[in-house]
Amino acid sequence: YGDASQKIDYVFKVVLIGDSAVGKSQILARFARNEFSLDSKATIGVEFQTRTLVIQHKSVKAQIWDTAGQERYRAVTSAYYRGAVGAMLVYDITKRQTFEHIPRWLEELRAHADKNIVIILIGNKTDLENLRAVPTEDAKEFAEKEGLFFMETSALEATNVETAFVTVLTEIFNIVN
Ligand code: GDP
Ligand code: MG
């Protein structure tokens, strides 16, 4: 977790997108503060959170943007995407529809963001395996076809959240270096 006194070598803006209630804010809370809340209203209105980590001996400040409840189709403005070098495209593994909306989010992302943006597809809520509605294989296949990284996470259990962010940030780091 970040040390305020350290020198920052890079600042990378990463945006979270995906349908409402898939767990974007809790994924961010887990990554930025190692917190989780069952009350989804807790973080409404927060524009972004930061966490500084070390990648290949350089300090990288990740500035992670969260949609403040603007997940309706086309409600996310282009300002949100401006300057973003990474994107996390999140669906809920227990809600098939949130996965079916992913192509729409991807289209919006590609229309507004830089063409070299690093994108990871995230299937969240793996702790609810008994309610799974999206097979891992379906998402993996889609990600491969679209050239996205892919990971399944649980913000609740803190599974793969760190790995997902580190995957995106390391890839961005490698592109700029
Ligand atoms: P957002 O609208 O995409 O930002 O979703 P939130 O982060 O607000 O989460 C919506 C609801 O799902 C909240 O009740 C969270 O507590 C819950 N939630 C988020 N992540 C997980 C998870 O990994 N597992 C479970 N079981 N619930 C989660
Ligand atoms: Mg939210």
Describe the overall structure.
The structure is a single chain. The longest helix is centred in the C-terminal third of the chain and has 16 residues, at 161-176. A six-stranded mixed β-sheet has the order 2-3-1-4-5-6, with helices on both faces. The protein is an alpha/beta fold. The mean pLDDT is 91. The protein has helices at residues 24-33, 78-81, 96-100, 102-112, 136-146, 161-176, and strands at 10-17, 48-55, 58-65, 86-92, 118-124, 149-153. The radius of gyration is 15 Å and the shape is globular.
* Class based on secondary structure composition and strand pairing: alpha/beta
Mean pLDDT: 91
Side by side, the strands of the main sheet go 2-3-1-4-5-6
Which runs of at least 5 residues are low in confidence (pLDDT < 50)?
none
Kindly report how far apart the N and C termini lie: 23 Å
Summarize the structure.
The protein is of the alpha/beta class and 177 residues long. The protein contains six helices and six strands, in the order βαββαβααβαβα.
